[in-house]
């Protein structure tokens, strides 16, 4: 039986290695189309030829319009004829089409003063540009401009504290605006947002969030955006370059894989190993198969997290990243321990059991902790918190019930076990 189990485990491990060798290809295919990254230069040439992008399935007919004739003409617009000073007096402003009809003009001085002018086709609603630390919307500060129904110009700084409309706070934010008033101007079909910022150092690669809505703000409370995107813009490049990054779907996939691996599959395998021992050897086969599947999910979570981290280089997720790698190492040690599993009658078997049980429990603890930490640093929202909290509650209730049944079963066995007969000893007279 031991040889059969060993062969069975080796076959499962072989399948695991095969699936992992195919995983990068599977993940590359699974990445959403709008998570593709393309580099666009200010001269209007795509980093990849148009026919090659179209062959790869990138839709160039709508959405982002890079380097088009329309956007080139918009960059040639003489803004000094309609923008007020000092925005009309700034010479040698760089101009770059960045997304849809959004055009970014900017000028950066040696004293770190920066003038930014964002323009886009406008009908109703609002247009906004946010500065993010990690590429995420939450935690960023944004300049938003619009014209209300009376035709009055409005421009405000907002702090994006959360994902709901009520958490977009007007008049707050971390952008160090200069004393020069920010302005919003409507010229033809275009709206222009102009403002000046003084950063502590010269701005280089910076995650920028762009969004718009067709609904008017109500008492300065913004309506939900119709569309948005995140770009990585290099303000220090001689010719402006733009990296198009949209990682929201990848972040969601990372969370789903981690939740399934650490929150469902691996705890299920551990529960079977502890509470189904009377079904020998069925419990062992189920435990081995389920834990290997859980390990594949955990490894996929880590690999996807590495890809996500490479996309968002400024993300402050060191603790989440470190705990995830540590928990993965514990999982690898658990799998390697299978090959060192001694026979049942070996003297060191009890020490191996202690190691396997406690390392598994420690891995599950840090895995659950890291899921909660990921929900927090990823600003996943209350739905994720509620769902994972409910899942943890169900697991704890299940363990309590099964632990009580196990204790009752052991007590019944002890009662049914006959005690050894006692023989009275007659005193020697």
UniProtKB/TrEMBL annotation:
<feature type="transmembrane region" description="Helical">
    <location>
        <begin position="256"/>
        <end position="276"/>
    </location>
</feature>
<dbReference type="Pfam" id="PF03351">
    <property type="entry name" value="DOMON"/>
</dbReference>
<dbReference type="InterPro" id="IPR006593">
    <property type="entry name" value="Cyt_b561/ferric_Rdtase_TM"/>
</dbReference>
<dbReference type="InterPro" id="IPR005018">
    <property type="entry name" value="DOMON_domain"/>
</dbReference>
<dbReference type="GO" id="GO:0016020">
    <property type="term" value="C:membrane"/>
</dbReference>
<keyword id="KW-0249">Electron transport</keyword>
<feature type="transmembrane region" description="Helical">
    <location>
        <begin position="283"/>
        <end position="309"/>
    </location>
</feature>
<keyword id="KW-0472">Membrane</keyword>
<keyword id="KW-0812">Transmembrane</keyword>
<keyword id="KW-1133">Transmembrane helix</keyword>
<dbReference type="InterPro" id="IPR045266">
    <property type="entry name" value="DOH_DOMON"/>
</dbReference>
<protein>
    <submittedName>
        <fullName>Cytochrom_B561 domain-containing protein/DOMON domain-containing protein</fullName>
    </submittedName>
</protein>
<feature type="domain" description="Cytochrome b561">
    <location>
        <begin position="216"/>
        <end position="411"/>
    </location>
</feature>
<keyword id="KW-0813">Transport</keyword>
<feature type="transmembrane region" description="Helical">
    <location>
        <begin position="321"/>
        <end position="341"/>
    </location>
</feature>
<keyword id="KW-0732">Signal</keyword>
<feature type="signal peptide">
    <location>
        <begin position="1"/>
        <end position="28"/>
    </location>
</feature>
<feature type="domain" description="DOMON">
    <location>
        <begin position="100"/>
        <end position="215"/>
    </location>
</feature>
<feature type="transmembrane region" description="Helical">
    <location>
        <begin position="387"/>
        <end position="408"/>
    </location>
</feature>
<dbReference type="Pfam" id="PF03188">
    <property type="entry name" value="Cytochrom_B561"/>
</dbReference>
<feature type="transmembrane region" description="Helical">
    <location>
        <begin position="362"/>
        <end position="381"/>
    </location>
</feature>
